Amino acid sequence: MPELPEVETIKRSLEKSIVGKKITGIQILLAKQFQGRKEDVLGAKITAIERRGKILKISLSSGKNLLIHFKLTGQLVWVPKAGERATLGHPIPFAGSELPAKTTHVIFEIDGPPSPKASARQGGRLFFNDLRQFGWIKVVGELDEQMTRELGNLGVEPLIKEFTVEKLSSILQSSSRPVKLVLMDQEKIAGVGNIYANETLFEAGILPTRPAKKLSNEEIKKLREAIVKVLEDGLKYGGSSAADEAYIKPTGEAGEYQKHFRVYQRAGQPCPRCGTKIQRIELGGRGTFFCPRCQK
DNA sequence: CTGCGGTCCTGAAGGC
DNA sequence: TGCCTTCAGGACCGCA
């Protein structure tokens, strides 16, 4: 499921392939997943791509932005126009299957400007696929009501310097909820979901059920380092494409971070550190994995 | 503030 | 074989 490292990977990939190009067409195959007016998007140039928490923001020359939330199974796949693909040696689209797929719900047609550089002018199609249909694309203006609703309440970005021990400490001290739920609260820390919360707590040696405000200063310090390390690892491996996950990069390639899971979806298997069986419990309705010996 | 259950949705897995 | 039930999960909503 796209969390911070996955969305950041998507962002970096699309920056290379579609920034500077123009949206020349949109096909909306499932209306509920595209909220806004087509006219605000058609004919606009893509000027920038950013990420805030788990949300992707595509800025347009029209002054509007496309906000995209992938939720559990959303994907963006970029397929350059046939013919030019061979020239670039582009990887296989959509893990080998045909697009549009049954799960394709929105298609953007994108053309590049005249340019001496092949990759800069190459047009193609950007497919928004979403098996579970929980994701969404919203057209919003800078600082408008929708934009504020979606982005305004997000918490601190964990990979910027403002995410200090003091900041994390104040976040944790304000809640008696289990620390894992606080890590996953988007209004506290933006971008951490179930996978990275589980892996982070293993890395820090802290039980997911511990009341947030009861962590010691030493534990808070370790937790901050663990959050940063685990998210950066996720990013290094291009995100995680686990067995039950739909995440792929816009090139159609899988991420590799699932090969480095130490607790997530490893119930019953030995802890990589001490060999004790990894346990699974439910916390806030989510599968929660931990080593009962390494995590205190 | 906190937790709980329901909602959206589909494919996989399990039961018989 | 085939039908039926159960379940996972990000974010949100109503309720206790």
Which properties best describe this structure?
alpha+beta; 296 residues; single chain; five-stranded mixed β-sheet; four-stranded antiparallel β-sheet; DNA-binding
Describe this structure as you would to a colleague.
It is a single chain. The protein is an alpha+beta fold. The strands form three sheets. The protein has a five-stranded mixed beta sheet, with helices on both faces. A four-stranded antiparallel beta sheet has the order 1-7-8-6, with helices on one face. A two-stranded antiparallel sheet has the order 10-11. The relative contact order is 0.15. Helix 5 packs across helix 8 (217-236). It is built from eight helices and eleven strands. The radius of gyration is 20 Å and the shape is globular. Strand 10 (279-283) and strand 11 (286-290) form a beta hairpin. Helix content is 25%, strand content 22%. The protein binds a DNA duplex (16 and 16 nucleotides) through residues 1, 32, 54, 69-73, 103, 130-135, 175-177, 184, 186, 193-194, 244, 284-287.
Strand order of the largest sheet: 2-9-5-4-3
How does the overall form come out from the CA principal axes? globular
**Subunit organisation of the chains:** single chain
Main sheet makeup = 5 strands, mixed
